[in-house]
Design goal:
This protein has 466 residues and is an all-alpha fold. Helix content is 72%, strand content 2%. The longest helix has 45 residues.
Length: 466
């Protein structure tokens, strides 16, 4: 009995010390998980522009996301993730169903139908995956993901290239040109976004200056749309930050005033910027290429915005021919919609254009691409995304002191590309939507919610994915 009592007495101090040791071990494990998840974010960025060919061209990071599905399925299908996503995932499901029905009805060949469905599946996988992944440590992960896109963009000009490069070479018969507008505009833009993420929390004025400087640099380089995106984004964020810092105003009053001020200031900035561009391009100050482009588009009845985009008008004509069902994935332009658009805009189409091979119906717009190929639900999905981005650009962010300028510029960029660029950057778009969902969600649904807390010990920071 004495031995038993003595052993019990001696064991008691170590038992009292065990909670502290357990907390230290848990903290160490959490630190390791954080490092691993940050590495994953960097690798996602590195693989975002490097493509492999699996039926069609697909970035390495998208392949990794599809491979990860069986391992993360319970998390990305959890009710909490779907609640946070709002209508994003349900509408994407309807879009996929519409695409499937359209391809069956139009008897699209299997390879093209698979590529069309894969486009929607990527969004259905990556949006919930990133919603879970960005529940914690979102700032560091966003910096690393954006940083990784810089070397990925550089390398993609030479190795593991996308189908866009290959397609240009097939159409032209020689090596595709790697120019500022087609390639380096993106690389320098990502560099500016990384700088904005790092500097905005420390000096907003300096971050605004970086954005305006990048707008000027993009304009001189010939990328007018990217220049406008940075200029409008910085202007919106300045107005937004001004009203967010004002006291004595109710939340609803701030929201109304922000929208009114942004509309007025944005219109003024757009008009002034357009006039500056007219003078610079019209005088030849931006170079011969910019001068010729401005001269051609300014002669059009439809102006500079639409005069140089027959693809958009061609896509609209195709959508009007089959607005509900669509034409099927990657449809050939049998209706010569692009030729009709060029005729309407007064542009000259090469006589052998339709004899050059596999000529697709042109769209050059997320909205039109999904609508023309997959039917009405493609239009509904991207219309919803567009207005969600517009709303999020003026919303209050959970970490607005770190993210505001980056997110506003990203929202403006995404909105522009939804209207005037073909569907691409699915991974980056999914990342942005997931980040916005987390940053604009009510506090009860964000970090600290059941989705973020599941499986975490009581004394440690919470985690979900990564």
């Amino acid at each position: 009995m004495a031995e038993l009592t003595r052993a019990t007495f001696i064991a008691t101090p170590s038992a009292l010390a065990s909670p502290g040791a357990a907390m230290a071990q848990a903290a160490m494990r959490e630190k390791q998980r954080t490092r691993r998840s940050r590495l994953v974010a960097l690798l996602y960025g590195l693989g975002s522009r490097l493509n492999v060919r699996v039926i069609g061209y697909i970035p390495l990071s998208e392949v990794a996301s599809l491979i990860a599905v069986p391992f993360v399925l319970p998390r990305i299908t959890s009710p909490a993730v779907w609640r946070l996503s709002g209508w994003l995932l349900p509408l994407a499901l309807f879009w996929m169903l519409n695409a499937f029905v359209t391809d069956l009805y139009m008897q699209t060949e299997i390879a093209r139908a698979a590529r069309g469905l894969a486009r929607v599946v990527i969004y259905l996988v990556c949006i919930p995956l990133f919603i879970a992944f960005l529940q914690r440590d979102a700032y560091a992960k966003t910096v690393l993901f954006t940083l990784g896109q810089i070397p990925s963009g550089i390398l993609s000009a030479y190795v593991l290239r996308s189908g866009v490069h290959e397609g240009r070479e097939m159409a032209s018969g020689h090596a595709a040109e790697i120019g500022f507008e087609t390639h380096w505009s993106f690389v320098f833009g990502m560099g500016a976004q990384v700088a904005i993420l790092l500097i905005y929390p420390r000096s907003r004025v300096l971050a605004y200056g970086i954005g305006v400087g990048m707008a000027g640099y993009q304009l001189v380089g010939g990328s007018r749309s990217t220049a406008g995106i940075y200029l409008v984004g910085v202007t919106m964020c300045i107005v937004r930050d001004f009203f967010e810092s004002r006291g004595g105003l109710r939340k609803r009053e701030k929201k109304i005033l922000k929208w009114v001020a942004v509309s007025i200031v944005g219109t003024v900035v757009a008009i002034v910027g357009f006039r500056v561009y007219q003078e610079a391009a019209g005088s030849g100050s931006l170079g011969e290429k910019a001068y010729e482009k401005y001269r051609t588009q300014s002669r059009s009845t439809y102006g500079i915005l639409f005069g140089g985009r027959p693809q958009v008008l061609g896509g609209w004509l195709a959508a009007m021919d089959s607005p509900i069902v669509g034409h099927g994935s990657w449809p050939v332009d049998h209706g010569m919609y692009f030729g009709q658009a060029c005729d309407i805009l007064g542009l000259r189409l090469p006589g052998d254009y339709y004899t050059q091979g596999f000529v697709l119906i042109p769209t050059h717009s997320h909205v039109l691409c999904a609508w023309v190929e997959n039917g009405i639900m493609g239009l509904v999905f991207w219309t919803y995304v567009f207005f969600k981005l517009a709303r999020c650009s003026m919303a209050r962010y959970r970490d607005g002191d770190k993210f505001a300028l980056f997110l506003v510029i990203s929202c403006v960029s995404a909105m522009w590309h939804i209207l005037f660029s073909p569907i691409s950057g699915r991974l980056e778009g999914s990342f942005l939507l997931a980040l916005l969902v987390n940053q604009t969600a009510p506090a009860a649904a964000g970090v600290g919610s059941p989705i973020a807390n599941r499986g975490a010990p009581l004394h440690s920071p919470r985690r979900v994915a990564g």
